[in-house]
Amino acid sequence: MPAERLFRLRSLDPATFEWEAASTWPEAVEAIRAKPVEMAVVDPLLGSPTPKTHGIGRLRQFFPSLPLLVYTEVAPASAGALLELGRSGIRRVIVHRFEDAPRLLRSALMAELEQSASQQVIQGMGQMLRDLPPTLRMALGDMLHEPGDGPTVTALADRARLTRRTCERWFTKVGLPSPRVVMVLTRLLYAHRLLADPGYTVEDVALRLGYSKTKTLQMQLRAVFGLTAGELRVSLSTEDALAMVNSRYFTPARQAEAS
User: Fold this and answer.
1) Domains annotated on the chain, with CATH
2) What is the DSSP string of the chain?
3) What is the pLDDT of residue 84?
4) What gap in Å lies between CA 12 and CA 17, rounded to an integer?
5) CB-based contact 232:244 (threshold 8 Å)
6) Measured distance CA(64)–CA(229) in Å, rounded
């Protein structure tokens, strides 16, 4: 990404967005594997005077769950590259100096973030969590990136601007398992979604979710799904994983056990 466009991104909304710059496609792949990247903003002109789609195609192949937003400039040579990217499933393009006014750029970024893996998990759990206050639902999504093997209820309450006691009472009031159990289940559904991407190893996923040891993630996956991380990749769809968690932990007969 040219310096001018990177500056526009970084100055747009620093409280919401944090940017990690990559100057080559291999560097971008490594950043995605090692850090909690929720979206990639890419330019087919990266590192080349003529548009090339190989690097972007590689990101799409390795990380199909990662939203990709193309942010480039108008050039006659770009038409073919953009057409090729459209065929690979990339639909959103922001054109520099024409469509990147701050309001439009922020709107495009927020729309892409809605498609991120973490947001898809929270949306998939919408029915289970529907009676919680919006601030608590948002905090659960934020806790997916909290470091440590087990995010604390106190940290969740702080993010939702509630006392710990009030936080726990909300979960009890709406008939959910304890906040600790819900946070673990949410993280494991997120881990399962990431494991479906061929670009991530189990170690990558554990690091991304803040686990200090991969072994801890493996143990939790086996406890909840009865499968190892490797088995989950090939034998359980996103829908099946969600249904399994719902039936085992969110049905009335199971909630008392889980809590």
Assistant:
1) 3-113 (3.40.50.2300), 117-258 (1.10.10.60)
2) --HHHHHHHHHH-TTT------SSHHHHHHHHHHS----EEE-TTTTSSS---HHHHHHHHH-TTS-EEEEE---TTHHHHHHHHHHTT---EEETTTS--HHHHHHHHHHHHTTSHHHHHHHHTHHHHTTS-HHHHHHHHHGGG-SSSS--HHHHHHHTT--HHHHHHHHHHTT---HHHHHHHHHHHHHHHHHTSTT--HHHHHHHTT-S-HHHHHHHHHHHHSS-HHHHHHH--HHHHHHHHIIIIISHHHHHHH-
3) 81
4) 8
5) no
6) 18
pLDDT for res 253: 41
Q: What is the pLDDT of residue 49?
A: 67
Q: How far apart are CA 129 and CA 137, in angstroms?
A: 7
Q: How many CA atoms lie within 13 A of 142 on its CB side?
A: 16
Q: Using an 8 Å Cβ cutoff, are 128 and 176 in contact?
A: yes
Q: Are 195 and 202 in contact (CB under 8 A)?
A: yes
Among residues 77, 10, 7, 87, the alpha carbon closest in space to that of 44 is found at 77
Task: Give me the phi and psi of 74, to 5 degrees please.
Answer: -70, 130
Instruction: Determine the pLDDT at residue 145.
Output: 77
**Residue numbers of the chain with a pLDDT score lower than 50:** 253-256, 258-259
* In contact, 25 and 58? CB cutoff 8 Å: yes
Contact assessment for residue 145 and residue 210, using Cβ atoms and an 8 Å cutoff: yes
Furthest-apart CA pair in the chain: how many Å?
A: 63
Predicted local distance difference test score (pLDDT) of residue 85: 83
Separation of alpha carbons 118 and 254, rounded Å: 25
